[in-house]
Prior knowledge:
Elements: E1 2-6, H1 12-21, E2 26-31, H2 35-42, E3 48-50, H3 53-58, E4 64-67, H4 74-83, E5 87-91, H5 98-111, E6 115-118, H6 125-136, E7 142-151, H7 165-168, H8 172-188, E8 192-200, E9 210-217, E10 222-229, E11 236-242, E12 246-250, E13 254-259, E14 262-268, H9 273-289, H10 298-317, E15 321-322, H11 333-336
Parallel strand pairs: 1-2, 1-4, 2-3, 4-5, 5-6, 7-10
Antiparallel strand pairs: 7-11, 8-9, 8-15, 9-10, 11-12, 12-13, 13-14
Helix pairs in contact: 1-9, 4-5, 5-10, 8-10
Amino acid sequence: MRLGIIGAGAVAVLHAEGAAVLDGIELTAVCDLRADVGARVAEPWGAAVFTDYRQMLAAGVVDAVVINTPHSLHKEMVLAAAAHGIHVLVEKPMATTLADCVAMEEACVRANVVMVVGLIQHFMGEKIALSAELCSGRLGKVLMIHDYRSTDYRPAARPAWFFDRAISGGGAFINIGAHCLDRSIWIGGAPAVRIAASTLNRFGAPVETDGTMEIVLENGVQVRISIVSDTPHHVDEMLVVCENGTITADPRSGTFVEIDGTCTQIHESSEQDIQHAFTAQLKDFAAAVDGAVPSVDGEHAKHVVELVMAAYVSAQSGVPVDVGIAARPGVSLQDAQ
């Protein structure tokens, strides 16, 4: 599979390194508006450099692409790839509206190409260990999840497009919150039926910099997500409360289980975990192109976007918002649970 990367930003090198070690995948092209930025990712692997993704798609040099660009550009790029019969791994969030998500899916179905959304949490070692432990049944049913993650949404700390709602779709919720929503509903074991959210705009930023989301899943699991900007110490921890104990996952340290006062570490994080995750995600994408079922399906990816949009509505209105099954006519929240 000849692979191209559109957008040579921060994680592009992780995709390139993954392609370099996987049999049957060759990085053949990198596109970025700045040729020098694209060249830094392309040159170690002898890949061609483009500054116009349309020219790259039309050049006949790729069979699949990774779309690693600002959020609102995903739709037009996926549609263009599909029109050329090119498979797509599109970074999260899938898009900035549900309508765009549907249009992307429909275009790929018509073109008979595979589209997978890059939700990297499913491939992180500490989250894999967390999921495996829950699946073992030792901790019993999941009852509650607290997901706390710090970020930095000071305008000087990020490229300008992150603060342009027309391009980014929002602030900390659609960017960092998409990761938290993804992993919380995955680990919680069911889609969400209700979300209540609040946001803060600090540092003079035109988008939200901080916020909280309180979510009820279809199976009754309660989820609380906290995203805080510019904290004294970086935080990225999931705490899962179960019938027989608790479990935490943190990419800096690992995964820990506590049962009746005894703590056991079941995964120790390493500096290679992030690269391993991107390599595994690319391998999963290549398998999907060959006909396998991807680890993360399109319905889940769309649900993450749905929840981000509902969180914005809730934060603006000050009231909870029903989503998914609870939002369907004739179905109450009690019925959904």
